[in-house]
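**Fold tokens**
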Amino acid sequence: MRAVDSRALQTCFHREEIEWRIQQAGEKNGRIWAICVPYVTNRAIQGRLDDVVGPENWKNEFRPGPDGGVVCGISVRVGDEWVTKWDGAENTDVEGVKGGLSAAMKRAAVQWGIGRYLYALEESFATVHEEGRFRARLKDGTAFRWDPPELPAWALPRPQPLRTAEHEAMLEFIREVGARCEEEREIRVGAGTRNLKAYIRENWPGIKEQYRLARAAIEAIEASTGEQFRQAA
């Protein structure tokens, strides 16, 4: 029976794969303060499972939970058997059932060690200022903008080795040929699809660091333009 690479599942995510939400916020002495917490998106969880065990070797399912909530089971194929780990969540006030499904899957992923390290982070204050990237409101309706804090070094992936000549050539291909892709072209990401150009733009830091992301972008560009990547001899 093949063992699951738990260390690979538990690897820290890149900054662009982490999102933040306001946990508490208030106002003191005329200044707004906010405490925020990081979380891994379901899209990133799906990508991690695809990368480590393969898309064909994992699945998820949902069942009604107590008091109107929902439980999620993430199953991974280990040899000829499926091993399932479960967790649940209540439906959320903002997104209702959809929010409950999303939260339940994130918690089930933690049972596999995915994103579990984020629970070790101490409470962090957001930087509240007029040019903040994100928007939020206090309970009285007062709007404010904020930026999340920087993650500590231990909560980020270890620096990657220097890129190979092939990886550099791939990046050049993505920059030059990717610009000629059809605007509506999509790329498969986990169990869904994204606009190819938007995906490359948003994930460029990761594409520069990770060969597998560059290769996925190359394949989508090749399918869109008909041009083939060929590394110079």
